[in-house]
Amino acid sequence: MRLAFGPNNPPKDLYAKRLHYCPHNANVHFVNVISKIGLTELLQGKSQDVQKEAVAWYALARSADWASFAAVRKTFPDADLVSGLLVFNIRHNRYRLIAYPVFSRRKLYIKALLTHKEYDTKEWKHQWP
Known about the structure:
By secondary structure, the chain is an alpha+beta fold. It is built from four helices and five strands; from the N terminus they run βαααββββα. It has helices at residues 36-42, 48-63, 69-75, 116-120; strands spanning 32-34, 80-82, 85-90, 95-102, 107-115. Strand 3 and strand 4 form a beta hairpin. It starts with 31 loop residues before the first strand and ends in a 9-residue tail after the last helix.
């Protein structure tokens, strides 16, 4: 699946429409989301709706310039920072995508994709970083 956006390939989905393509800005920074392969593995067995939304999240995160949690909240207002981990709502809060941010390096390590029930057990807090 091709995720690059540009003048000949505009974003087609709700989350991706928040992106603004600007070919004239030479000082663009991107978040390096580690890794799409890991996200793909987490999506195994999940419904198409969850997969679509997670891939849209990936595309947005990959093209974002998040130097702080405040910058993340501008893109995803419902994101939370819990015990140093970013928590994103996927599929209308039915799933939680957990990622470890390194804002100074613009890196985001995907750690888990949990159902809301799995998230509520709070066991995930003790696994990372």
